[in-house]
Automatic annotation (TrEMBL):
The protein's name in its UniProt record: Lipocalin/cytosolic fatty-acid binding domain-containing protein
GO molecular function: lipid binding
SUPFAM superfamilies (alphabetical): Lipocalins
Keywords: Lipid-binding
Gene3D superfamilies for this protein: 2.40.128.20
Domain Lipocalin/cytosolic fatty-acid binding: 3-113
Nucleotide-binding found in the keyword field: no
Family as reported in the entry's similarity comment: Belongs to the calycin superfamily. Fatty-acid binding protein (FABP) family.
Matches recorded under InterPro entries: Calycin (IPR012674), Fatty_acid-bd (IPR000463), ILBP (IPR031259), Lipocln_cytosolic_FA-bd_dom (IPR000566)
Length: 113
């Protein structure tokens, strides 16, 4: 988070959060909803279609999602600061999210309900 310009307070809140992430799909439009005790974010997107979004930390970006089997990739091109790549791998029991900013990678694993 430091590498994309997130301040210390937001980093501490983000690291202590236990988010619930849900994905739904209707007529080719996907919704990704992330809920924490601090903030809720909902992103609607169509695959392979760039769109503008405001990230949970307030950055403006253009995102594009692609799907390859069970791997959902998001390329987030920021209007200011570095671009971010999210790779979300869905397994039978988990969602494994890898975040890449330049050479820095972080991995967060969610249990599937």
């Amino acid at each position: 988070m430091y590498d994309i310009g997130v301040g210390m307070v937001m980093r501490k809140m983000g690291n202590s959060a236990t988010p619930t992430v849900t994905f739904t799909e209707a007529a080719g439009e996907y919704t990704m909803k992330t809920v924490t005790t601090f903030k809720t974010s909902e992103v609607k997107f169509k695959l392979n279609t760039p769109f503008k979004e405001t990230t949970m930390d307030g950055r403006e970006a253009e995102s594009t999602f692609t799907l390859d089997g069970s791997i959902l990739t998001q390329i987030q091109k920021a209007s200011k600061g570095p671009d971010v790549k999210y790779i979300r791998e869905f397994t039978a029991n988990e969602l494994i999210t890898t975040c890449e900013v330049g050479e820095v990678k972080s991995i967060r694993t969610y249990k599937r309900n």
